[in-house]
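User: Run a structure prediction on this.
Assistant: Running it now.
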Amino acid sequence: MNRNIVSSCGKVLLLSGGLLFSSCLFADSTSSSPMAGWYVGLGGGWVHQLDNSLQNAVLPYTQNGIVPIAPDTLINNKANGDSAAWFVEGGYQFVVPEHYFPSYRLGLSYEGSSEQSVSGTIDQNTQGVPASQLQTYGFNVSSEALLVTGEADVGTWFSFTPFLHVGVGASMNRGSGFSTSSEQDLISFDNHTQTEFAYEVGPGLGYGVGSRFSVKLTALYRDFGTASLGTGTRQNANSGPGAATTTFPGLGLTLQDVEVRLGVNYLI
């Protein structure tokens, strides 16, 4: 995990801790029963990418209109699996006494994560080349999502409240910054942004501080669709200025991950 991610997570935890300390000073501790009303919240956490497979990883090669001649294949693909995440949210908390779910929340959440790097090597069908001398490539992916969220509490014991969380909405995913060390082929991809269906689900545990503040620890499985680069082009550097240029679909990475987040809610 790089220093920027550690620094970002540290700032989020510090902010959450500061809000918790403030809530301890000013919260009304005379009541631990859930209250109905509007709430706001924020927080952050750590995301680990689960799926390293690439879409459209075979790059065809055309020469003089003949297809294909020894296509390049991107192999050993690896996403930098750790990134910092953040979220802000707001909504309404409902209270239903003597029910399986005595309180629940419906709201909106705007969330995102820091840029992840994707890298690997390029198999150019060159016989006898050691793996350590294969050409490399890399690009970046990022996402921001707007989700309708719901949380159902299953009860409260000693100020601790387990709950279930689900979120459904849309994610704006971006692929950018493709680069390669290849000198034999001139390979490039456009930057690209697309909107994808997104969802997240998982359990959580809240801790109430007085009647209005709560701290929440949540573990989520998230699927935010695909982040893709735009159209790619390839031209053999040894074929001269008149060489044909091959175009192909952009590389794509499926954004499936797990997130552990810490947040603070305030009931207005």
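Residues 3-267 form a domain with the Porin fold (CATH 2.40.160.20).
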